[in-house]
Amino acid sequence: MMSPESIKERVQTIIQLPALPTVAMEVVEMVDNPKTSASKLGKMISTDQALTAKVLKIANSPFYGFPKKISTIDFAIIVLGYDALKEIVISISLVSSLQKKSDSHFDAKGFWDHSIASGVLARRLARDLNYRISGEVFVAGLLHDMGISVLHRYFRNEFKRVVDIARETDLTFLEAEESVLGATHADVGGWLAERWNLPDHLVEAIKHHHAPGRAERNPELVSLIHCADVFASRIADVAVEFDKGVDFDEAALAKLQLTDESVLNEYIANYTSMIQTDIDQVTHLEIVNEGTKAHDRRVAEA
Ligand SMILES: [Fe+2]
Ligand SMILES: [Fe+2]
Questions:
Q1: Distance between Cα 279 and ligand 2 center (Å)
Q2: What does the domain layout of the chain look like in residue ranges?
Q3: CA-CA 20 to 30 A from 26: which of 33, 68, 264, 266?
Q4: Per residue in 10-57, pLDDT tens?
């Protein structure tokens, strides 16, 4: 068995920091600039084909629930809003820099759907519980399992053994990881997030998403990501193999005041139908349009 220290060392030294694509950096800067017009931003994103395809994929995913097909970046900006677009561009760049194709032990599409669902559910849950919603809620949800991608890509044989053990025994996925690696994908993701100098509360959310009680800096964010992840694991359309055995952490439920089982079940039922039937589309559209109008007013006034 590899020692956790040697894995940590490998994660922190072997993995080259994939540079954030230049266009993504430019998009982030442009989005931050209140004088930026929608068409200018659209042109910038459109120069990167892979980025364009992924933004459109997210805009059209059932989790965003927009009723019409979004086939251009200009339309995506109007529908999603500037802030959401910025989060999406940054997260896409980080996730895609790691991901490899599907094989018998890893389902790339399932991973991507699970990541997006966790991001959207985390943001939705934050809104429903009246927590102050920051862009980081979506980003943390999207990135929480990036340790899985690291294991699949850089620790291929160990990852295969973990998956086989989880498939063939009663062990949970986390227990299988512990038995093969002496560490979990949450540890590995946390180490990489540190290596990438991501903000501390993102590192913490990634590192402790399966043990939210260990969070010190921002227990609320970690609890939100944890619960969103467990919600996702309960929804057949976005459940993944590596969530085998995950369950709600009592401390996280208490932190979010979700200890009442009937209330919790109501949330699960609501989110399941939200993902399956896109009932949120109208509200979402209204909120985003408000944001865009406000932005356009600021541009006009500037
Ligand atoms: Fe996880
Ligand atoms: Fe997860």
A1: 24
A2: 4-301
A3: 68
A4: 776 655 555 455 666 666 677 677 787 777 778 878 887 777 877 887
Residue 181 and residue 161 in contact, taking contact as beta carbons nearer than 8 Å: no
Centroid of ligand 1 to alpha carbon of 247 (angstroms):
11
Any idea which residue has 């946390």 for tokens? 190
Residue 157 pLDDT class (50, 70, 90 cuts): very high
**Tens digit of pLDDT for each residue in 205-228?**
999 999 999 999 999 999 999 999
Q: Taking CA 301 as the corner, what is the angle to CA 298 and CA 302, rounded to the nearest 5 degrees? A: 85
Residue with tokens 């933004």, as numbered in its chain:
55
- The rounded distance, in Å, linking the Cα atoms of 155 and 148 is 10
Tell me the CA–centroid distance for residue 161 and ligand 2, in Å. Answer: 19
Quote the Cα angle for 239-242-246, to 5°: 75
Homologous superfamily of domain range 4-301: Hypothetical protein af1432 (1.10.3210.10)
**Nearest ligand to the CA atom of 114:** 2
